[in-house]
Amino acid sequence: MSTSILLADDHHLVRQGLRVLLAAEPDFHLVGEAADAREVVDLAERLRPDVLVLDLLMPGINGLSALRQVVKCAPKTRVIMLSMCSSEAYVSEALQEGAAGYVLKSSRADELILAVREVAAGRSFLSPPLSEKIVEGYLKSRNGAVLDPYDTLTTREREVLYLVAGGLSNAEIADKLFVSPRTVETHRANLMRKLNLHNHAELIRYAIRRGILPAEE
Amino acid sequence: MSTWFAVLEMPFLLVAIIYGLLIARTVRSSLIGRGMTFIALGSLVMAIGHILMIVNGLAKEQILSVILGDVGGAWAWLAALCTSWLFYGLGFIEVYKVLPEKETELLQATRSRERALKALRDSEELYRSLVDSVRDVIYTLSPDGTITSLNPAFESYTGWSCSEWIAQPFAPLVHPEDLPLALERFQRVMAGQNPPLFTLRIRERSGNYRVGEFIQTPQLRNGRVVGILGVGRDVTERIKAEEALRKAHDELELRVQERTIALSKANEESKARTEALEASEEALRETNETLRALFHASPLAIIAMYPMGIVTMWNRAAERIFGWGKQEVLGRPNPIVPEAKQEEFHALRERVLCGESVTLMETQRQKKDGSLIEVSIATAPIYGANDEIRGIIVVYDDITERKRAEEALRESEERFRSLTHSTNDAVIVGDHHGRMLSWNQGAQIMFGYTEAEVLNQPLTLLMPTRYHEPHQRAIARVNQTGETKLVGRTIELEGLRKDGTEFPLELSLAKWDTRAGAFFGGIIRDLTERKRDEQARARLAAMVFEERERRHIARDLHDQIGQMLKALKLTLEMAERRPEGAFGVNLEEAQQLVDSLMKRVQDMSLDLRPPMLDDLGLLPALLWLFQRCAAQTNVQVTFEHTDLGRRFASEVETAAYRIVQEALTNVALHAGVKQATVRMWANGSMLGMQIEDRGIGFDVRSTPVTTLGLTGMRERVHALGGELTLESSPGRGTRVTAELPLTAPIEHASLMRA
Fold first, then answer.
1. Is A41's pLDDT higher than 50?
2. Is residue B575 assigned to a domain?
3. Do B642 and A146 touch (CB under 8 A)?
4. Tell me, what CATH number does B352's domain have?
5. Which of B237, B254, B273 marks a domain boundary?
6. A-chain residues within 8 Å CB-CB of B738?
7. Contact A51/A78 with Cβ under 8 angstroms?
C-alpha cells in the first residue's frame, strides 16, 4: 500500500530536490505540489493525502496557520513540518497545532523518508537534535514563573500605594512627593490597574493582605 | 461853749485810742507795732487831758489847781500836754524810722520774684513751644510706671487722647511682645542709667500698632530719680507736623494767657501768701527742667534764633549733626546754611517771621567740615507774651541716610529693571496675593501680554486651568505657614499664552519677605525650542542607531558570509579540476560550508527580526531571545509573566520585543551582572514590561538619555502612546518599566519597519 504525499514549499529548487528524493522510494506516491500556503489548504482538502510535507515559513498565511487549517479540513492527513529552524518554540507550536513530525532542513535526506514512514504509520517523528523531552521542557519554561504584580510597580507607584493606604489624599501625597496632584492621580490609576484593583476598598484590602498598612493603624 | 467842744471832741479821741491800740495789736510783732503803741499812749494821755477839761467845764473849777494849787495845776497840765506830745513824737519817730527800710525790702522781694518768674515764663514758653511742635512723643513717667504727662504728638500718632492715659500705667500701650524690653528699660532708667535708643510697638486706638523709637532719661531732683522723661519718635510714617504746630501755637497762646493771669494773681497774693508763690515757682521749675532735659535729649537738632538769625539755643543733637559746638555758635549768625541755600533760608525766615509755620521742607545744610547733609526742616515762630515774634525755632531731621537709601534703592531697581528687560527669559514678580507686580520684555514676548494688561492681574492668567486650583492652594499655604515647595527649584510646567495656546516652560522661583509681605520672583524659560531640539536629537539618535545596525549587517555579510562563499567557490573550483569521480572529498567540504552558511544566514535573519515574533507571537520570541541572550552574552534571565499566551497587535509585540532586547543588551554591556529579571503582564488595556537588574546602575540625572539606546526605547513607547519609566542609581541597579496601551492608534508607521 503506497503512501500519498503532498509537497508544499515556496522554493522551486527545494521542491524539486524533495520530489527527486521522495520519488526514489517505491511505496511513496506524490499527489501534488503547492507553492504557497493557500494552495496547500486547497490541495490538501481536495486530494486528502496521507502525508503533507509542509514548509514552516511560507509566504501568504504562514506554514503554521496553513497547518491549523489543514488539520481542520483534512483531519486524516498527517503533517510533517519542514523547517530551517530548530527552535523549540516552533517545534512545540507545530506539535501543539497538530503536526505529526518536525524535520529540520539541515538534516540528512534519509531522515525525511524515515519521517514520512513513521508518521504514515501513526507515530510521530522529530529530527534527532529535537526530542519530546526538550519540547516538554520548553513548554514548562514557557509557562514561566508566576508574576507577582507588586513587582511590576515602579518606586513612585510603590510610594503612592503606601501613602494612599496610609489614608492620604492625592493633594497631600502630591505635597509630600513634590509632584502635582495630577501626577499622583496617574500613578494611582497605574498601580491600581497593575494590581487589578478597582476601588479604594480593594486597595485597602490589598494593603492589609500585603502588610503595607503600618501596624499602628 | 468849751463844754460843748469837749463833748464833740470825745468820739474823736475814743476813735484815736482804739485805732492806735488796734494798729499796735495788729502789727505788734513788727517795728511799726512799737511806734503805733507810743502813738496810742500819746492819744490816751490826750484823752485824759480832754476828760479833765470837760470835768473842769462842768465843775466850773480848775480841778488840778484845786488839788495842786494854781501854780502846781498849771505845771501838771503842761506836763500832761508834754507827755502826750512825747508819746506821739516817739511813736512817729519809731514808725518813720523803720518804715522806709521795711518798704524797700518788701518791694525788692516782689520785684526779684517777678523777674525770676518772667525768666521762667519766657523759658517755659520756649520749651513748651518745642514740646508742642516737635513731632516726637514726649512723656514723663512716675516711678511706679504711670504716665504723668504726654504731649500732643501722642494723640496724633496713636489716636488716643492724652487724658485717657495720663495717670494710667504705660504697659497696656506697649505690644505684649515688646513689654519685657520696655520694662527692662524702665528699670534701668529708674536706676539712674541712660540706656540707648530702643524700639517698641505702641497700640493705637484703632488696635493697630505703630513702631516708635524711644529714648529715656531719668528726671533727677536733689540727686534722686523722681521720674522718667521719654522721647518717642514715630518711625512708622511721617505725620503732618504742620497741624501739630498750629495747634501748639493756639495752645501756647492760651497757656501764656493762663500763665499771665496766674502770675499776676500770684503777684497780687505774693505779699500775703508766700507759700503759694513758692509752690508755683516749684512747678514752673519742674516743667522747665523737664523741657530742658527734653531739649537736650531730643534726637533731632533743635536750634532757636532771634528774628535776625542770631543763634540763641543749640542742642546736643545739633552739635552732633552739624559738628558745631554750642559755644561756637551761640550769639552768632546761623553757620549751617550753605551758600547755595542762603536765599532760600532768608525767604523761609521771612515766612516764619510773618507767623507762618513750615514743616517737612527738605533742603541741604552744611556741616562744620563743609560737607553737605540732607535735612528735613520744621520751623515756627516763637511768640512773646504780647504776641510779638521773639524768635524762630527750627527742628532739623538728618535725612542723609534716608536719601542715600532711597537713591541706592532707585539704583538697584534701575539695575534690576535693565537686567530683566535685557533677558530673553520672562521675569515676573508677584505678591503674596498672587498678583503680578512686574512684567518684563521677555514675558511680553513669551506670553503675548503687555505690561499694562497684566499688572495687578492674578498669576493664574498665565496658567492652563488645571494649574489654577493647585496654585491657589499653594498661595494659601505659603501665606499661612510660610512653607514653600517650589522655591529654589526648577520645574517644568505648561504656560498659557494670550492666544490660548499652551507651551512648555521651565520655572525657577524665588521668594523674599518684606514688611509688606512675601514677594515671589519667577524666571521663566520657554522650552518650546528645547523640546523641539530634543525631538530632533531623538530622531538623529534613531538614525544613528539604524546606521549602526546597517554597518553591523554589512560587516557580517562581508566578513562571514562573504568569506564562506569565497571558500565554497574555491572548493568547487578545486572539485572541477579533479579527475572525474575524484571530487567526493571536495563535495563533502562544500556541503559543510553550505551548512555553516545556512546557519549563519539563519542567525543573521533571526537577529534582525526573529520570525517567531510574527509566526508564534511575543512569548515564544522572548523565550528564544532569553536563550540566545544566555548563549551569547551569558546573561541569565528570570522571566515572570501573566496572560501572555495570546497575540497582540504586531506593533505592540515588536515594540515590546525591542524594548526587552535593548534593555537586556544594556544589562550585558553596562550592568556588570549576569542576572536579569524580566516581568511582563497584560490586561484588557495595557501590555506592561519591566526589565530589572541588580547591577552597578547609574545616575539618571547626569546620564544623557541619548546613550544606552534609551531614546530608541522611549520613542517606541511614546509612539504607541505608552509610558516608560527609568529608575536607576549608582550601586542600586536599574529598572526599566514600560506600559503600552493595547488599543492605541499608531503614530509613526515608520517605526514599525525593522
1. yes
2. no
3. yes
4. 3.30.450.20
5. B237
6. none
7. yes
Q: Does B148 map to a domain?
A: yes
Find cell 524665588 and name the residue.
B510
Residue B572 inside a domain? The answer is: no
DSSP characters over B342-409: HHHHHHHHHHHHTT--EEEEEEEEE-TTS-EEEEEEEEEEEE-TTS-EEEEEEEEEE-HHHHHHHHHH
* CATH number of the structural domain spanning residue B714: 3.30.565.10
Q: Residue B669 and residue B734: Cα distance in Å, rounded?
A: 13
Q: Which residue type, as a one-letter code, is found at position B284?
A: L
Cβ distance B688 to A196 less than 8 Å, yes or no, reads no
Q: Looking at chain B, how many residues does it have?
A: 754
The CA distance from B34 to B27, in Å, is: 8
Report the alpha-carbon distance of residue A78 to residue B35 in Å, rounded.
Answer: 177
Residue A206 pLDDT more than 80?
yes
Q: Partners of B487 in the beta sheet?
A: B509
Cell 521668594 sits at which residue? B511
Rg (CA), chain B: 57
Report whether A67 contacts A99 (CB < 8 A).
yes
Which DSSP category does B506 fall into? E
- In this complex, is the C-beta atom of B488 within 8 Å of any C-beta atom belonging to chain A? no
Q: pLDDT tens digits for B316-356?
A: 888 888 888 888 888 888 888 888 888 888 888 888 888 88
Could you tell me if A118 and A128 are in contact, meaning their C-beta atoms sit under 8 angstroms apart? Answer: no
Q: B721: Cβ–Cβ under 8 A, 6 or more apart, which residues?
A: B740, B741, B744, B745, B747
Q: Which residue of B has its CA nearest to A171?
A: B470
Measured in degrees and rounded to the nearest 5, phi and psi for residue A148 equal: -90, 115
Domain boundaries, chain A: 3-143, 149-210
- Please state the length of chain A: 217
Q: Are residues B643 and B723 in the same domain?
A: yes
DSSP structural state of residue B341: G
CATH code of A3-143, in short, is: 3.40.50.2300
pLDDT averaged over chain B?
Answer: 78
Q: How many CA atoms lie within 13 A of B366 on its CB side?
A: 13
The domain boundary, picked from B366, B398, B430, lies at B398
Both B123 and B244 in one domain: the answer is yes
Q: Which of A172, A18, A150 has the alpha carbon at shortest distance from A82? A: A18
Chain A contact for B583 (CB, 8 A cutoff): no
pTM over 0.80: no
**Which strand ranges, in their side-by-side order, compose the sheet holding B311-314?**
B311-314, B301-305, B389-398, B372-383, B358-366
Amino acid (1-letter code) at residue A156: R
Burial state string for B51-62 with b = 16 or more CB within 10 A and e = fewer than 16: ebbbebbeeeeb
User: Same domain, yes or no, for B142 and B220?
Assistant: yes
Domain range A149-210, CATH class:
mainly alpha
Comparing CB atoms, the residue among B466, B683, B723 nearest residue A196 is B683
Grid coordinates given for A157: 507607584
Residues B44-97: pLDDT tens digits? 887 788 777 777 777 777 777 778 777 888 888 888 888 888 888 888 887 777
Q: Is the pLDDT at B472 greater than 70, yes or no?
A: yes
B615 to A106: CB separation less than 8 angstroms, yes or no: no
Q: Compare all CA atoms of chain B with the CA of A138 and give the residue at the minimum distance.
A: B623
- Number of separate domains in chain B: 5
In a domain, B549, yes or no: no
Residue B141 contacts by C-beta under 8 Å, 6 or more apart in sequence? Answer: B147, B148, B170, B186, B227, B228, B230
Interface test with A, best of B487, B592, B641 (most A CBs within 10 A): B641
Tell me which residue of B698, B626, B700, B694 sits closest to B664, measured CA to CA: B626
How far apart are the two ends of chain A, measured CA to CA in Å? 81
B202/B117 same-domain check: no
8 Å CB contact of B640 and A144: yes
* Residues pairing with B391 in the sheet: B382
Question: Domain residues for B737?
Answer: 609-754
Predicted confidence (pLDDT) at residue B204 exceeds the cutoff of 60: yes
